Structures are given as structure tokens and as C-alpha cells.
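Exam revision sheet. Question 4 asks you to relate a sequence to its structure. Input first:
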Amino acid sequence: LVKSGLCSMYLLGHSPVVRSLTFQIGNHLYRPLSTSRLHHHVKFSGTNIDFSDGKKAFRNKSSWELLKSYLIYSMFKSNFIVERNLQLLKLGQRVLGRRLFSSLMKATVYGQFAGGEDKESIRPVLTRFRSDGVRAMVTYNVEEDEGTDSKGTVMDQYDNNLKPILDSIEVAADNAVDNDNCTATKLTGIAPTPLLLRLSESLVGSERVFKLLADKPSLLEGKINADSFLRGMERMKVGLNSAETEKVFSELDIHSTGSIDVFHWLKSFKPNTQLYQLLTKQKSSKQQPLLPVMSDNEKDQMTSVIRRVETLAQCAQDRGVRLMVDAEQTYYQPAIRYITVDILMSKYNLSSPVIYNTQQCYLKATENSICLDLLAADVNKFHYGVKLVRGAYMEQERNLAVEKGYEDPIWSTKTETDNNYYKLLEMLLSRVRNGRVNIMVATHNEDTIKFAIDKVTQLGIDKTAGSVVFGQLLGMCDHVTFSLGSTGYLAYKYMPYGPVEEVLSYLIRRAHENKGMLDGAVRERKLLTKELRRRAGLSR
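Answer key, C-alpha cells:
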């Protein structure tokens, strides 16, 4: 990877923490690779799949279901509705009452984008999917908003949230076709967000220290030796003499090789080491980062978080279900990546890809992040599972970058994001052929899917093996998912389920994040119109 020039840098910084903690994460974003190197000309050589055949794609849907989908897509064209959906839903609930409002939602928005209220009510949906050759990625979505208090009895809620997520794993296992079902979860549902922010700050600070001490300023290429360590300590002006510096280096060189790479560094550079403690007390130079210190309460919380995620991972492994950890805002991502890749994958992905990380291609630093993940998989000999998405937090991330005064972490145009997606998808697919890499191509973009299918064919990858699968959201892009399923590809619907009010809150947040996608559902509306006209005898 390093020799190929694809991974000369890795993400060392992310957006700064919001409100409760004052991280300096956003100020340390690496300069991305030049966009002039990211031009992919998409050509399809042998793709014969037809995404415009509405008769085939919608064969198991009633005309009412098609009309409902059309009306909902048309409704979400309105920015007024998308931006004020929470107020409108609250008004509807007051006017109609809870029972009538719930019935209305089940017949419309909830029924379009959610599978059901509980694991029993979603079984007919799963059965229907199977008849169309489509799998489900069931998810009981629970997540914590920014600023939620993580003290007191609130901590009990994270343990309570664990049960429905475990239930979703059981549902996925019970309804699997050849042990190929999966589920998804968000770590903010089982971990306090202030703790994730604190962990992110610590990880980013540790990586910054590595850069300062290594012989090359790169996580992938750099290594710390005695000479580079001495020079770095002098730059940070920590105040140790040569003998003391040599002793600190020996403490960190846990394998006594005289050279420390980033993976051994992250294992040895712990809060109880002398150097870490020195860097928490005062900032001795402009270059020296000031590292955070976790309180005893936060350490206890972290122990509980690891217990919860390992409970989920163990259940998924035991039941033969793939567990996909969703991406969230960039200020949580260092912690989410650490827990998902460094803790869970290194333990549960040794023989098969149980745990998947999610990578967002609209971020400039995603290529470097993926390369570090791949290198970690090579070093620790585990299967790397990745769900590749474009990204869903664009407006929020850009507004935060402006507010905090750091460089926008997102590519400036859709074309750059698309090019990045193609580039990373091609790189990952080349690794699939060599084994130990598994991808979910999570996109609604038909050209991207055709590109992936072409590459799968060219590389001789078995489309039924599960190493490359496709995913779309429930209630959207049915013409793609069901066309893929009917032609033998492993296609999944991301299917949230749960009580109406709870799922609606989740759907409201997703509507804000994906309003560009909802507004751009022109293709779906055209295909629905065409199929409705055909059924009415108005066209062939």
C-alpha cells in the first residue's frame, strides 16, 4: 500500500468536539490527495442488469404500495416538509391523537421506511424479501443525541438499549438465507457521546505524538527509533535529559526491537506511561499536544462500553450474523474506528468477517483511513469488513467546520465524492480477490453499482460468495435492490424497526441527513409512474 503511493498519509485529525469538550481535532486534518488524481471514467463492459424494468422489480408490490411510494417521494420534494417534519408530526399527533396518528403513520411514512414495530411484525416483510431474492439488514436503531448527560441512571439506559440490538441479531439469524443475513447498529446507542469524544481526543493526540516522534511524519510510513525519539522529545521541550529520555523510550519499546510502528505505539503509549502523564500536565511548546486524562468514572464507563460491544460481537459470531457498525459524525469517528477495528475486528474477525466498519467517501481523509484499516488487518491477520457509503452528515459537518474555523473535511463537489467512491471501491475490490476483504457496496447510484458488477466480473469474484454485497435503504431504490436480487447478487435492504414514535424520531434525523437523496428521487418517481400506467393499461 505504501509503495503504491495510495496511502502516503492517514487521517490524524477530525472535526473538533462540540460544546462540552474543546478538542483540537479539526485543526489537524491532513491535506488530501490532489483531486486531479481522482478522475474515474466509468465504463460498463459486460453489465447486462436492467434497472429500468419496473414490471420485474415491482412484481410483488400492489398498485396501492406503488402509489403510496410515489406520493411520499413527491412529498419529500418540499423543503418545507423536510425541514419542519418534526413540528408537523407533533402537530399531527396533537390533532389526531396518538392512536389515529400512529395508524396514519403506519399507512404512510413509517410503513414506507420501517419494517414493523417488533421482531414478530417484521417477519412477513422478511419472508417477502426472500421470495424476491433480497436479504435484510435489520436494525433496532437507538442513538444518543449530542449533549446527553452520561451520569447517574442514564448509564442504565445503555444496558437497556443492548437487549433490542441483541434481538435484532437473533431476528437476522432466524431469517437468514444460507447464514448471510446481517444487522447494523450505532455505537452512540450503547456508549455515552461525551465518552466517545474524550476517547477520540485521546486517540488523535496519541497519533499526533507518534508523528512528532517518528522518523517520517506518517502513521503508515513512520517508525520511532531512538534517534527520532530524542529529536522529537527535544522539539516538544518536555524537559527530560538524555538518560531519562532513553529510559522513556525503553518503556515504550515493549518488544525491545529499537523500532516502534504505529500499531505497537498505540498498544504501548497508554495513560499510565511516564510520557503520556508528562503530556497531560502542561503544554511546554507549540508542537506538543496536551493530552486528556480520563476520570475514574470515565474509565468505568469505558469498561462497560467494551463489555456491551463485545456482547454484541460474540452474539453475532455465535449466530452467524454480520454486524455492521454505522458511521456517525467525524468527531466520534476516531473512537468508533478504534472500537470497531482495533478491538472487535482483531478479536472476532480472525476466521470470518463478523464485524464491519463503515467508511464515508465524502470525507477527504477516507482513503487514508481505509489504508490504515487494511494495514491493521494485514498486521493482525483478521478479515476486514467494510460498508462503503458516500456519507450522510454533509450539512452538519460543513456548518461545524465554519463555526469552529477549520478546513471543510468534505469534498467540495459531488463529482469529487463520486470519484473518491470509485477509486476506493476499485482498490477494495482488488483486495477481495486476494482474500480477507469483504465489502458492502452501500449506494443508490446505479452507475456505481454497474461499475462494481463489472469489476466483480472482471476479477472473477463469485457474486454469491458474500465477499461483495449491495445495500440500499428500505423504502427507496426498490428497482435497484430487487433487480439485483432477481439476478443472483446478494442485495440487502437496511430495515429499521421498533415502536412508531421511536422509529419516527430516527427517520426524522435520517430525513434531514438524506434530504438531498429524497429530493433527488426523480428516477424512482419516473419508474413508479411508468409501472402504474402499465398496470392501468395506459402504456405497454
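Marking note for examiners. The chain has a mean pLDDT of 84.
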